[in-house]
Specification:
single chain, 251 residues, alpha+beta, Beta-Lactamase, five-stranded antiparallel beta sheet, elongated
């Protein structure tokens, strides 16, 4: 297993989400966690996690699992998702097992547990990341490889838990600095005009700076608003900034 400082150095040096995720999944696999789901939203409220197209979701689970858990909305009934939304820190899935044994799960939550059991998603840990904003929530589910029991996982955590938590926190913080488009992809020109708006320029100013007509600038701004699914240019600037799509350095 790579030394933790060497791994953290690689993480903070990553220049893309793809590189970061590859590094992190490989490192977690060395501890026995071979399937991960990371989720992040800036649109969390008491009754919603926002539009799924605005979430950051990274996973190396089988697509067949994600098709049911994510696409069919099973995550909204998942007990550990509920725990992550209500808490910060790390939680053993023994909490879920104990809850299940005391019959405190709803019918929908039991359905999630039963589905997970059929997919060998039975032992692991969940880390809910602390945020300074009530609208921001991020968490990661670390699923242990098939064959490991929760007793085995808890023993791994007793030995390496601090190291695992630090590695996940650094991964999460690094991810917040990297460009992520997901379903909301902007063209280079759309990013460019939004950047100038962010600098306080008018459409007329931007037209002069980019040697375009004001009508063409307005067209790119309209297309950017559509791509980001917002109503105003100010909202487009904010959302693109949220996901680090503005002022991106082309490497």
């Amino acid at each position: 297993m790579k030394a933790v400082l060497d791994h953290l150095d690689d993480i903070v040096s990553a220049m893309s989400v793809e590189t970061l995720w590859d590094l992190h999944t490989s490192y977690m696999a060395a501890f026995g966690f071979d399937r991960l789901i990371y989720g992040y939203t800036r649109y969390n409220t008491q009754h919603s996690l926002g539009d799924p197209q605005d979430w950051v979701v990274l996973t190396n689970h089988d697509p067949a699992y994600m098709a049911v858990f994510l696409d069919d909305g099973l995550l909204f009934q998942a007990p550990m998702v509920r725990w992550a939304l209500e808490n910060n820190g790390a939680c053993s899935w023994r909490w879920l097992q104990d809850l299940h044994l005391t019959e405190n799960l709803s019918v929908n939550e039991r359905r999630v547990v039963e589905f997970n059991s059929t997919m060998d998603v039975t032992a692991g840990y969940t880390i809910s990341f602390k945020s300074v904003s009530e609208r921001v929530k991020a968490a990661i589910a670390l699923t242990a490889k098939p064959g490991l029991r929760q007793d085995d996982v808890d023993q791994i955590w007793a030995t390496h838990g601090n190291e695992i938590i630090v590695a996940n926190n650094v991964m999460h913080l690094k991810l917040l600095t990297l460009p992520y488009s997901g379903e909301r992809r902007l063209t280079k020109r759309q990013r460019e005009v939004l950047q100038w708006v962010g600098d306080g320029k008018t459409a007329q100013d931007i037209a002069v700076l980019l040697n375009l007509t004001p009508a063409t600038v307005e067209k790119h701004l309209r297309l950017a608003r559509t791509a980001l699914d917002v109503e105003t240019t100010a909202q487009a600037v904010l959302k693109s900034a949220f996901y680090n799509q503005m002022f991106v350095v082309d490497l």
